[in-house]
Amino acid sequence: MSKPLAPLGRFDGKVVLVTGAASGIGAATVERIAREGGTLLCADLQADAVRASAKRAVELGASAEAIVSDVSDPVQVAASVAACIDHFGRIDVLCNIAGILRFDHTHEMPLADWNQIIGVNLTGTFLMCQAALPHLLETRGNIVNTSSTSALKGLPYAAAYGASKAGVLALTAAIATEYGRKGVRANAVCPGSITTPMTSQPSFPEGANMRLVMRHSPLDEFRGPETVASLIAFLASDDAVHINGEHVRVDGASLS
Ligand SMILES: NC(=O)c1ccc[n+]([C@@H]2O[C@H](COP(=O)([O-])OP(=O)(O)OC[C@H]3O[C@@H](n4cnc5c(N)ncnc54)[C@H](O)[C@@H]3O)[C@@H](O)[C@H]2O)c1
I need a labelling partner for 55 at 20 to 30 A (CA). Which of 23, 28, 32, 74 fits? Predict the structure, then answer.
């Protein structure tokens, strides 16, 4: 009989800062990295849930701390990075997973909604990268950002969301080119339809053509958040040491 496989331990000795860690893909990523030996700083807006996520990582044998932090606020972003350094002394990996989604007819979308979606998904990702980069340069670490298939093919009623996620791809490519020679990698994941609280009860505007939505996100293509966490863990690990500036779809080929 063959022996059970030993755990990979790809994150032994590595400190990983995860935003959006309280729920869905972020919580699944925390669990995946904890199982692979990583130390975690879990950041999110949701206080109880982010503490629960860190507790789960500790139960799995990891060192983990939680911080309540809004990625769209530069002061709170600085506090997250400082907390990671205070607790663990370094940052090897930054996983930017926090995000929000709201549907509306583009011609009716309030400017405040546009600004909030761009502010969290794109500016929040930028702020986290900016604050973590000095530490990642020290550790020759890497960044995994969360884009979406909506950056690659039009998701109707989600213009701000798709624009924010396309911006994340350009931001990731710029960082990869700018810092690659200095030993810091940056990559992005583009999930398709993933079953999480974000997608469990979508609220579409009156008059939305659901056939257009289904063409982008067919109901039978939904998968669990662990399908994205495994890709994030791969890109964040040394297995992906020669992958930089790439984005990878994780959507079961539903866009093809
Ligand atoms: N679920 C999908 O189908 C899907 C598809 C493509 C991309 N994504 C992206 O994956 C990421 C995770 O989404 P999910 O599906 O797990 O959703 P989710 O709602 O389960 O998790 C998002 C997390 O981000 C946190 N968050 C929101 N705003 C924040 C802020 N300002 N500061 C800090 N934390 C904040 C939330 O509290 C939540 O815990 C998002 O960036 C999302 O856009 C999701």
Answer: 74
Which pTM was predicted? 0.97
CATH number at residue 114: 3.40.50.720
- Flag whether 7 is in a domain: no
**What b/e readout covers 181-200, taking b as 16+ CB neighbours within 10 angstroms?**
eeebbbbbbbbbbbebebee
Residue 254: pLDDT band by 50, 70, 90 thresholds?
confident
Please give the Cα distance from 113 to 161 (Å, whole number): 10
Parent domain of 146: 15-193+203-249
Is 20 touching ligand 1 by the criterion CB < 6 Å? yes
What pLDDT, on the 0 to 100 scale, is given for residue 218?
83
**Tell me: the pLDDT tens digits for 94-106?**
999 999 999 999 9
Structural domain count of the chain? 1
